[in-house]
């Protein structure tokens, strides 16, 4: 019998992904930046690349950057098979003792303890909600990928003031299949009236590399249409995520979405012209204004142009935190309202009352 020696040295797990940003070499940081990471997104394990994509389907330049970060064909495929590629999307995977004092205080304000943060016990949803302030009346938890679907469902079923929406985010469209649709529909059924919309879903061409590839744009368009074909016949309002995709988004929406449909154009950062198309063509579309309105720039122009009666305030927590706020959560809505009031030259009370009525019309609570 002839024995063949196989060198497994290249199959060792890649520990680079668990390293702190500033522990990377300068060459590794440059490679990470080329792949779309920032220091903040790296520390938050916010994965910017398509997930579960085969090594052979990656561009040579992307493969080069990944090799700089310690990946190779074998480690990449092993991680893809096990679901570890991009598994950190949307969550901070550090342990409690890895947080600095300010981060621990912020987490405590949201109802986390050491045991809850380290997943040693279930989240105390009631404690977290109590940190949102006495005026808190409700929020929508988004389940828009395989990891967040069960979390949003659990949150909606755990607290009377937390609702949920379910869909497939465009950055997760590579995972979209019959099984995922089955899971989403099961979540809607389990939550009953607590499931208030389909989404967030849509098109996102903003990635500096993948956003330019026609292959990935095509997949996003196909998944967007497939979800509209499910959501609209079932009567679900829509939560739309649209980034750098004006022409395709309008073309698809005009074909598949009735003019009287309800939709929340989530944290809109597009052009005034595109916003005006939404407002004029769909009378029940609302423009989402998030913490980015406190950062100046084009979002202020959008805010000033958008009628208050067509606006929704949102946090996109834990992302898009307003300037001066340490952690984004539903309790910072008044901070966003204050800036909207300044831009529009009206009272904070008017902003809160009007947008609250808009939210009730859109989501039903």
TrEMBL record:
Molecular function via GO: hydrolase activity, acting on ester bonds
Record Pfam families: TatD_DNase
Species for this entry: Noctiluca scintillans
Protein name: TatD related DNase
CDD domains, A to Z: TatD_DNAse
InterPro entries: Metal_Hydrolase (IPR032466), TatD-like (IPR001130)
SUPFAM superfamilies: Metallo-dependent hydrolases
Gene3D superfamilies, alphabetized: Metal-dependent hydrolases
């Amino acid at each position: 019998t002839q024995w063949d020696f196989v060198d497994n040295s290249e199959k060792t797990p890649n520990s680079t992904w668990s390293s702190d940003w500033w522990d990377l070499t300068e060459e590794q940081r440059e490679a990470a930046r080329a792949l779309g990471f920032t220091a903040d997104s790296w520390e938050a394990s916010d994965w910017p690349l398509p997930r579960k994509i085969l090594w052979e389907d990656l561009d040579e330049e992307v493969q080069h950057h990944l090799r700089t970060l310690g990946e190779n064909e074998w480690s990449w495929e092993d991680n893809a098979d096990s679901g570890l590629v991009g598994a950190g999307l949307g969550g901070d995977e550090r342990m409690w003792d890895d947080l600095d004092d300010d981060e621990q205080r912020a987490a405590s304000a949201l109802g986390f303890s050491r045991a809850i943060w380290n997943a040693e016990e279930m989240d105390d949803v009631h404690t977290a909600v109590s940190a949102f302030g006495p005026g808190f009346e409700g929020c929508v938890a988004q389940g828009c990928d395989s990891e967040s679907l069960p979390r949003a469902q659990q949150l909606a079923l755990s607290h009377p003031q937390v609702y949920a929406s379910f869909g497939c985010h465009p950055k997760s469209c590579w995972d979209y299949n019959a099984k995922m649709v089955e899971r989403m529909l099961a979540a809607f059924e389990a939550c009953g009236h607590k499931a208030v919309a389909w989404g967030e879903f849509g098109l996102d061409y903003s990635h500096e590399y993948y956003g330019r590839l026609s292959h990935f744009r095509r997949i996003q368009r196909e998944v967007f249409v497939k979800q509209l074909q499910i959501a609209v016949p079932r009567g679900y309002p829509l939560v739309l995520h649209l980034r750098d995709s004006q022409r395709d988004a309008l073309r698809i929406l005009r074909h598949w979405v009735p003019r009287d449909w309800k939709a929340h154009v989530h944290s809109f950062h597009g052009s005034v012209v595109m916003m005006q198309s939404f407002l004029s063509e769909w009378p029940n579309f609302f423009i989402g204004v998030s913490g980015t309105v406190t950062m100046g720039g084009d979002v202020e122009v959008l805010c000033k142009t958008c009628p208050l009666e067509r606006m929704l305030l949102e946090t996109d927590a834990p992302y898009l935190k307003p300037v001066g706020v340490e952690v984004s959560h539903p309790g910072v809505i008044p901070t966003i309202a204050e800036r909207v009031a300044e831009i529009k030259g009206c009272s904070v009370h008017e902003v809160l009352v009007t947008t609250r009525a808009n939210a009730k019309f859109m989501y039903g609570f």
